[in-house]
């Protein structure tokens, strides 16, 4: 597979769109007090008309003001918003005829709708201020659609970012000082001297304070690695720059989202996209123009900050996990713009139906890693990655720790339900009912780390009878210790189900939304799928062992860095 030439800075910058760094400066109103006053008055009059329920009158006011000040970004965006509001009013009655169709949608057809829309409407070509906007909002639009259709609950119901604070960490402060020096030196050109060869953005999810996904890489790289710890409010790892504090500091480059102009062709495409979703799903997906503006606003500020950061810290390769994460995506894009190779380490379940990775029939997607290092051959086999992304199996380095736990004695009759945020409450109900129906089993319900223990403890109190053979587990002990003791593992779709295979768990999956993720594994006979609670009770003891767990989690390679270099040279 041919790689992009990452040593060409100009080519990296072109992925963002033309002259993106020039676009990072906020646009301002036209010079002159009179223009500002006229804009203010027009917007106030428009707001009054809207409050009176006269949206068409508000649109007329704004359009007339635009006739005098055609390039005013706030007037242009307000005009687009009002046109959308009128369009929605006129469509309300026509939406009713699609409701029955929406009730029959599943994850497969929802994903297919996205893929078809992307192809038909050329969504990857959408730009706002030179930024390719669709990849920034694709996952959020997908989860929002799945929730509106009743397929999923919130994906991370208890995941809360800590309140952002300026950094007091000396290492982070020194990194920001280097950035400030680069920003203030107009003579800076070429690569600066720097003693690190790679950067590693660590995963925010930790087990006993340890990021297991990057552990082997960090140990291998040693002093060569510049570490950035994404910690979500916990203590920053010693020797690492505070990634979250950088994001706080980079807010200084934030511009007003209302000053980001969405061009007429982009507005037309968004209108067509709304119609597409209504026609196919009977679903109203909301005001995408506002969502895109806000996403681009944040992206530009983080991009600008990391553009300076990579100038001040010119590593050769950036390693990260969760490359589709909104914050990481801007850091990734800025690195590519500076000619830095980007390598992503797999951190969870990926499949044809994971829209962070699945791009059928697509050659290139902006702001994605160049190389994906996977746990096993299975994951790229079933996921249509962009054609120019190279997938390389490195195994799961933490599998050694898991294997050590496999010496733990299995508890006969222990059935563990592994929760998944988007279908967690459905699984919980089945787990409680299963415990009541099968007194011969001990049932554990293991929460996803982002779920609230209190929420589920309160939910348990709503049952007339709380089964004595039932317990809720959250975060401790670590999940691998739980899996090592589990005889039968039950869930919907989760990496935990496949990690359990390595530890010799027998596995059952329940036909809930998202089961599509597991279809290739079901077809291989490595898990048993049941259609209902009654089938689960009847067939739980028929759960199979996986024939070849190494297909999913291979033995770890000797050198992660060598594998990444080899992929780059192919």
Account of the 3D structure:
Helices cover 44% and strands 10% of the residues. The chain is an alpha/beta fold. Among the domains are: 170-253 and 298-356 and 363-400, Rossmann fold; 402-551, Glycogen Phosphorylase B (Rossmann fold), CATH 3.40.50. The strands form 3 sheets. Strands 5-4-3-6-7-8-9 form a 7-stranded parallel sheet. The chain is globular. The protein starts with 8 loop residues before the first helix and ends with a helix.
Question: In what order do the strands lie side by side in the largest sheet?
Answer: 5-4-3-6-7-8-9
Could you tell me how far the N terminus lies from the C terminus, measured between alpha carbons in angstroms?
A: 7 Å
Would you identify the regions where 5 or more consecutive residues have pLDDT less than 50?
A: 1-14, 26-30, 92-103
| CATH topology label of the domain at 170-253 and 298-356 and 363-400 | Rossmann fold
Mean pLDDT: 86
Q: If classified by CATH, what would the architecture of the domain at 170-253 and 298-356 and 363-400 be?
A: 3-Layer(aba) Sandwich
Q: Give the helix/strand class.
A: alpha/beta
Radius of gyration over C-alpha positions, nearest whole angstrom: 26 Å
**How many distinct beta strands?**
15
CATH superfamily of the domain at 170-253 and 298-356 and 363-400: Glycogen Phosphorylase B
Helix content: 40-55%
- Determine the strand fraction and express it as a percent band: 5-15%
Number of discrete helical segments: 22
What does the largest sheet look like?
7 strands, parallel
């Amino acid at each position: 597979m041919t790689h992009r030439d990452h040593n060409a800075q100009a080519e990296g910058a072109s992925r963002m769109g033309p002259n993106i760094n020039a676009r990072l400066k906020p646009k301002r109103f036209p010079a002159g007090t009179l223009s500002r006053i006229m804009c203010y008055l027009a917007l106030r009059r428009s707001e009054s008309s809207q409050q009176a329920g006269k949206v068409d009158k508000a649109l007329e006011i704004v359009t007339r003001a635009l006739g005098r000040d055609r390039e005013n970004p706030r007037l242009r965006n307000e005009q687009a918003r009002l046109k959308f509001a009128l369009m929605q009013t006129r469509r309300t009655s026509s939406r009713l005829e699609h409701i029955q169709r929406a009730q029959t949608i599943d994850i497969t057809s929802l994903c297919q709708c996205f893929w078809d829309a992307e192809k038909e409407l050329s969504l990857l070509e959408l730009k706002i201020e030179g930024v390719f906007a669709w990849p920034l909002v694709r996952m959020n639009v997908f989860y929002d659609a799945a929730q509106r259709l009743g397929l999923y609950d919130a994906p991370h119901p208890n995941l809360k970012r800590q309140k952002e604070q300026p950094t007091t960490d000396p290492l982070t402060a020194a990194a920001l000082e280097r950035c400030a020096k680069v920003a203030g030196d107009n003579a800076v050109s070429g690569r600066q001297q720097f003693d690190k060869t790679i950067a590693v953005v660590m995963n925010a999810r930790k087990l006993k304070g340890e990021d297991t996904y990057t552990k082997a890489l960090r140990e291998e790289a040693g002093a060569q690695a510049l570490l950035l710890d994404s910690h979500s409010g916990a203590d920053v790892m010693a020797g690492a720059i505070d990634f979250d504090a950088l994001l706080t500091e980079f807010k200084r480059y934030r511009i007003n989202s209302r000053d980001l102009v969405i061009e007429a062709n982009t507005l037309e495409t968004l209108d067509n996209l709304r119609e597409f979703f209504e026609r196919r799903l009977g679903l109203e997906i909301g005001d995408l123009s506002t969502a895109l503006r806000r996403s681009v606003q944040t992206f530009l500020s983080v991009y600008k900050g990391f553009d300076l950061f990579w100038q001040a810290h010119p590593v050769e390769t950036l390693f990260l996990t969760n490359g589709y994460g909104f914050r990481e995506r801007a850091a990734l894009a800025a690195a590519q713009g500076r000619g830095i190779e980007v390598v992503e380490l797999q951190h969870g379940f990926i499949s044809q139906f994971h829209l962070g990775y699945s791009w059928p029939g697509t050659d290139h997607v902006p702001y994605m890693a160049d190389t994906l290092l996977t746990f096993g051959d299975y994951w790229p086999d079933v996921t249509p990655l962009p054609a120019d992304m190279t997938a390389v199996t490195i195994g799961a380095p933490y599998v050694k720790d898991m294997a050590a736990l496999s010496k733990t004695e299995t508890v006969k009759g222990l059935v563990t339900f592994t929760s998944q945020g988007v279908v967690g409450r459905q699984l919980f109900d089945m787990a409680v009912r299963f415990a009541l129906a099968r007194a011969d089993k001990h049932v554990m319900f293991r929460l996803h780390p982002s779920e609230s223990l209190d929420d589920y403890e309160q939910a348990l109190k709503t049952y007339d009878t709380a089964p004595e053979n039932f317990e809720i587990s959250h975060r401790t002990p670590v999940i691998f210790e739980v899996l090592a003791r589990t005889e039968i593992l039950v869930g919907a779709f989760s990496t935990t189900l496949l990690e359990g295979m390595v530890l010799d768990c027998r596995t059952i999956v329940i036909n809930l939304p998202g089961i599509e993720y597991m279809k290739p594994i079901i077809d291989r006979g490595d898990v048993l799928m049941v259609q209902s609670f009654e089938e689960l009770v009847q067939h739980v003891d028929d759960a199979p062992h996986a024939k070849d767990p190494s297909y999913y989690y291979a033995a770890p390679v000797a050198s992660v860095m060598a594998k990444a270099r080899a992929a780059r040279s192919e």
